[in-house]
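call fold target=N-acetyltransferase
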Amino acid sequence: MDVHRPAAGAAPGGVVLRPAGESDLDLLEALTNDPDTAGEYQWFGWHDPGYLRRRWRDHGLLSADGGMLVPTMDGRPAGLVSWHRTRTGPQAYCWKIGLVLLPEARGHGIGTEAHRLLVRYLFAHTQFNRVEATTEVENRAEQRALEKAGFVREGVLRGFDFRDGQWRDHVQYSVIRSDFGDG
């Protein structure tokens, strides 16, 4: 199975995930460090502007504990997907994933397909059984994207994240291998 290709039935030139190149770094910095590009639910204030460049230089934004890939649509970068290892028990871990799309890429199904491709990639190349995602309770678009991508809503995490001067509730989602047909 080629995990970088669109799902069956997707339009030609659909969403593809690829490693970030040096030419993507300005885009990735804007998605994480610019309020207009990051959007309402992803803007957490300015931070170290060289962080992503150092990570890219050190390990290409890919490591055993996590990484970032660039979802593209018709060859054009549409945003970023990320994952990091999270402990779930004394000897167990899962992946926690995230997604940020460029403003012009939102609302076109790219997020749903990028989530689906990332889960397929993680299940194909790691032994972890679970992938988690959270999003703010008010972020209905991301909740729909996660559900369409096969994630199961598990519940509300109260006071989970601090953004824009307030503690925010999040909705917890997950998918396990058997949900995704890889059990």
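return ok
The domain at 15-176 is CATH 3.40.630.30 (Aminopeptidase). The two ends are 15 Å apart (CA to CA).
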